[in-house]
Amino acid sequence: MKTLSNWVVLGILFCLSITVSSCSSESQSKNVSDEDSTSAIPVEIAKAMNGDISAYYSSTATLEAENKSTVVSKVRGMVTEIRVEEGDFVNANEVLAQLEDEQLELEAQRAKATMDRLLNELDRKEELFKKNLISAQEFENAKYEYQAQKSE
Taking a C-beta distance cutoff of 8 angstroms, is the pair 120, 147 a contact? Predict the structure, then answer.
């Protein structure tokens, strides 16, 4: 009889331990389900039906370029030829337009002639200065005028 009561006590303890462990599992599973519900993404469900599908989508938007650049000419002049079109891909230092070069060539020739004249004048004044026929001020003025023209 004593062994029977031991078995009954063991059975009751076993049932109690299963009951207690199942209760603690429910509280943990409730916590897990609460966490899952907060991170859920809301979705809409619709019934599938037959209909027309548009092949085009029209919208208004503001686009901004990833890279911006400013295109400027190094010299002024009239454009005679445009070598690219809008939307073309270009590389750095690629010629985009041709300027009228006749005026530029005339200006370059004029500048060269002015430089030659000032250099000759500077050479003459240097010789005169060495012979003490002109003042140091006149010689320095000629030298500064030549250097100013050279820097342009």
Answer: no
